[in-house]
Write a structure and sequence with these properties.
By secondary structure, the chain is mainly α. Helix content is 78%, strand content 0%. It is elongated and about 40 Å long.
Amino acid sequence: MIVRQFRLVLQAKEVISKGGNQKDVAKKLNLHPYVAGKVADQAVNFSFEKLEASYKKLLEMDLAAKSSVQVLDVALESFVAGIGS
């Protein structure tokens, strides 16, 4: 669900950067208007670079957890703590 949320926020950021609004986000991403509004609100809090880096980090964490290199719970806690910095 965390990966899905970051994907939606990244996609919403792209729609908004091209001059779109919450209705455009809802239509392009096939989301309920309420959800699109929340995702669009979140998108303004992040840069493209931060969103892309976070999305890549989530992929790395997923692969590491599936190959037993890293414990997912600990990795997620670190990830969430680092989001604000």
